[in-house]
Amino acid sequence: MSTETKETKRISVPEIAARKGGEPVVCLTAYTAPMAKILDHHVDMLLIGDSMGMVLYGMPSTLGVTLDMAINHGAAVVRGSRRACIVVDMPFATYEESPEQAYRNCARVLAETGCAAVKLEGGEEMAATVRFLVERGIPVQGHVGLMPQSVNAAGGFKVQGKTAAEAAKVKADARAISDAGAFSIVIEGTVEDVAAEITDDISAVTIGIGASPACDGQVLVTEDVIGLFTEFTPKFVKKYADVGAAIGRAAAEYSAEVKSRAFPGPEHCYGKKK
Ligand code: KIV
Q1: Which atom of ligand 1 has the smallest separation from the CA of 219?
Q2: Domain limits at 34?
Q3: Which of 65, 103, 108, 205 could form a disulfide with 91 if both were Cys (CB 3.0 to 4.6 A apart)?
Q4: Residue 27 maps to a domain
């Protein structure tokens, strides 16, 4: 199986939008150029998620991620990929204050990374901001249901939509963001019938994470999928590989060979002076 992308034409935002109700959209997170290069051929969309705060930086939540971090990692992923549609997650406190603040920071992200779109969390209360951005040429992916940037207000990472009132809230949030012009919406941590009703109800392409196969596509955090992030594993994660264990074995072998002087061997040396 090839892991190198030959294509030079990127999947565009309208092409993702046209997948509504069709072939599921495949999305993974990426934060670095080498990971983007490996994933590019296999996905439609790469998300520079603010999950990088926990996964890459060892932070307790996503709240410590800054705009500069998102821009630096976003630019690296754009450089490392050629095909995937690239979406950068807007960090906490970089877009909520006003549509103008959101425009200023989202425009910086687009200009400085070369990404195709931004993602931001929020429901009805963010609809005016989404409309403001979309009307000014910034493609927006929404994020409703379990919203990690609201972890403090929600009192933890909790599945949303189990009660009638919660389900109505998630559905109203998704409809408001879709009606405001978002081309896609991530639905995180909700029950299947809520995800199915939203997917049927709105024109935006729904991307599920812990939201059942009823969505128009799926996203996971790559390090969860490949066994590189093991601090905690949500129920919705399927681990397809154990790269962490492979790295551990390689490091142990290297350590043993350095100590025994088996490494470096003659094939790794420049010989002796003549
Ligand atoms: O930050 C992130 O990686 C995300 C996805 C998991 C949807 O928001």
Answers
A1: 7
A2: 13-241
A3: 65
A4: yes
